[in-house]
Amino acid sequence: MDRTASLRRLARTIRVSLFRSLPWGVRVAHLFLVLADDFTLKTFGRAVGSVFLLRGVKDMPDPGPRWNPKSRKPEETLPSGYFTSFASQVYRKNLGKFRDPELVEGAMMKVAAQLMLNPEQVNPDKNVYGQNVQTLEVSHGAIKAGMCAALGQ
C-alpha cells in the first residue's frame, strides 16, 4: 500500500470518529445543511436537465458518456454539475426578485417535482433557451403562489 492511500484511510477513520463524537443535534444540522445545499442547484439542474433530455429539447449540452435514458432514475446518470448553470441562474433571478431564499428554494423544489411528474409540460419543439425562459416563468408563478398561500389569500 502506498503512503497516500494509508494517509487517506487514516484521515477517514479520524474524521468518522470525530463526527461520531459530536452531539446528535449538530450531526442532524450538518445533514440538513448538506441536503439543502445539494438540492438547490445540483439536484434541480440534474432533474430539469434530465427531463429536457428525455423530451428531446434542442441544443442541450452534452450529457456525457454515463447518460442512460433507459435507467430507472436517468437523472442520476448525469454528471454531478450538469445544468447547474441554469439552476443557479433560476435561483439568482428569483432571489433578486423575491428576496426570500426559503421561498425560492421551495418553489424550485416544486417546479422540479412538477416537471419530473409531468414531463409532457416540456415542449420538445423549443430549444434550450425557450424552454429555460418558460421554466423561469413557471418558477415565478410558484413563488407568487407560495407568497399568496403564506399570506392566506
Overview of the molecule:
Helices cover 70% and strands 0% of the residues. The chain is built from five helices and no strands. With 153 residues, the chain is mainly α. It has helices at residues 3-21, 24-55, 84-98, 101-117, 128-151. The mean pLDDT is 82.
* Secondary structure tally: strands: 0
The share of residues in extended strands comes to under 5%
How far is the first residue's CA from the last residue's CA? 65 Å
Low-confidence sequence ranges: none
Q: How much helicity do the residues have?
A: 55-70%
Topology:
Elements (H helix, E strand, L loop, with lengths): L2 H19 L2 H32 L28 H15 L2 H17 L10 H24 L2
Using brief descriptors, characterize the structure shown.
single chain; 153 residues; mainly alpha; 70% helix
Tell me briefly what this model is.
The protein is an all-alpha fold and 153 residues long. The protein is 70% helix and 0% strand.
